[in-house]
Amino acid sequence: MAFDKSEVEKVAQLARLHMSEAETAEVASRITDILALIDQMQSIDTDGVEPLAHPLDVTQPLREDKVTEIDRRDELQTLAPATEDGLYLVPKVIE
């Protein structure tokens, strides 16, 4: 599928982009190359290929779920101007 300069100019105008003639020709060429690559990829027969979650057959090592810091909520809330039931109270900003 070819993407010509007039289509690039139309899209650039809609996006309010200023492009020179050289830039327009370059962008049209690159988009045409990308669309050709997509056509090439879509022509590949993938019927017998199982979908992959990851290209490499590796597992993620998980760390042990344990507490590494002490609970300082009460200490930090004593520094706040206003708290209630363990929550920080802030001024209303939306009417």
Order of helices and strands: HHHEE
The proportion of residues forming helix, as a percent range, comes to 25-40%
In the sheet with the most strands, the strands line up as 1-2
Major β-sheet profile? 2 strands, antiparallel
What is the count of β-strands? Answer: 2
| Percent of residues in beta strands | under 5%
CATH topology description of the domain at 5-43: Histone, subunit A
> Gyration radius, to the nearest Å?
28 Å
Oligomer: single chain
CATH class descriptor of the domain at 5-43: Mainly Alpha
Description:
The chain has a two-stranded antiparallel sheet with strand order 1-2. The chain is mainly α. Helix 1 (5-14) crosses helix 2. The two termini are 53 Å apart. A hairpin with a 2-residue loop joins strand 1 and strand 2 (87-88). The chain has a domain at 5-43: Histone, subunit A, CATH 1.10.20. The protein has three helices and two strands; from the N terminus they run H-H-H-E-E.
Question: Any chance you could write out the topology, listing elements then pairs?
Answer:
Blueprint: H1 5-14, H2 21-42, H3 73-77, E1 83-84, E2 87-88
Antiparallel strand pairs: 1-2
Helix pairs in contact: 1-2
Task: For the structure shown, list the relevant keywords.
2 strands; single chain; flat; Histone, subunit A; 95 residues; mainly alpha
